[in-house]
Amino acid sequence: MTGETKLLPAVLVVEDEPLIRMEAVDMIEDAGFRVYDVGSADAAVVLLERHDDIGILFTDINMPGSMDGLQLATCVKDRWPSVGIVIASGIIDYKEMELPKGASIFPKPYPTDKIAKALSDIVAGIA
Known about the structure:
The chain is of the alpha/beta class. The chain has a 5-stranded parallel β-sheet, sandwiched between helices. β1, α2 and β2 (35-38) form a beta-alpha-beta unit. It has 5 helices and 5 strands. The two termini are 20 Å apart. It has a single domain (3-126), classed as Rossmann fold, CATH 3.40.50.2300.
């Protein structure tokens, strides 16, 4: 692990499809970030309560549990306002959705270069 990696916030990936989650984790690790990953919004909240090094949430919208990804994003923005939010979705009309302030949304399949830039932009805003 490089010194630069230690300075970056950890990213929490929330995706219920294991193969898609693994792809997202690989993409974000390749961008130089440490990653936690879970399969539901409920598990994400538990992880956020336990790890104060999480600075970015990367979540899908559709998932099982008591919250979907948009509800999770709103919860995170309310409880952890400094956490940056990136949402990825296979929903076609995602541009019509109301997002928490400052959240970014991208279509699936993941546009790797754009997501890496969004993560870097969040870090630049945090620093």
